[in-house]
Amino acid sequence: PPNSIYFTPLSSYAGWGSELFRVPLTQAQHKQIQLISQDFPWAFNIGPEPSAAEQGVTCLDVLNVLHAALQHPLSDTEWEAAAQDKQVSLIRACNHQLNPLILRVDWLGSHVAFGGLVKDEALARRRLIPGAGEPPETWVVRFKSLS
């Protein structure tokens, strides 16, 4: 996971580091959450760091897990599940980087900037296998273009 966070000099957060994000994600201090997105097909389950379990999942836990999960190479199964236009997009993204592997983050195309978390119960339910019961505490990750 990244070990530094950068804020532009004009930001009111300039000079701050990752300690700014060691706060509970929600007031409910959930011990387990799930991240999904309309921009990728995966679901990532997140629990708090053991040293901070009493405060539940933190904003930093979310950023760390999301970053690490998106740095994984795409599996053969994930590649096969991608539509042909997505495969073309993945190859294009891979050709623009030094790493010869196609990573999960490449699935996002040009929308790789973290755009926040939102609640979308309808999407959370659609992503569940029928008969799976109630979805876990689920948050939807939004991404935006860097430009």
Structural class: alpha+beta
Order of helices and strands: EEHHHEHE
Share of helix, binned: 10-25%
How far apart are the termini? 23 Å
Sheet-strand content, in percent, reads 15-25%
Q: How many helical stretches?
A: 4
User: Roughly what is the average pLDDT, rounded to an integer?
Assistant: 85
* Strand element count: 4
Shape: globular
State Rg.
Answer: 17 Å
**Main β sheet profile:** 4 strands, mixed
Poorly predicted residue ranges: none
- Strands in their spatial order, largest beta sheet: 2-1-4-3
The assembly state of the depicted protein chains is single chain
Q: Summarize this, please?
A:
The chain is α+β, with helices and mostly antiparallel strands. It is 24% helix and 17% strand.
Explain this structure to me?
By secondary structure, the protein is of the alpha+beta class. Helix content is 24%, strand content 17%. The chain has helices at residues 59-70, 76-81, 84-95, 121-126, and strands spanning 33-37, 40-46, 113-118, 138-144. Strands 2-1-4-3 form a 4-stranded mixed sheet. The two termini are 23 Å apart.
Ordered list of secondary-structure elements with their pairings:
Layout: E1 33-37, E2 40-46, H1 59-70, H2 76-81, H3 84-95, E3 113-118, H4 121-126, E4 138-144
Parallel strand pairs: 1-4
Antiparallel strand pairs: 1-2, 3-4
Annotation keywords:
single chain; 147 residues; alpha+beta; 4-stranded mixed beta sheet; 4 helices; 4 strands; globular
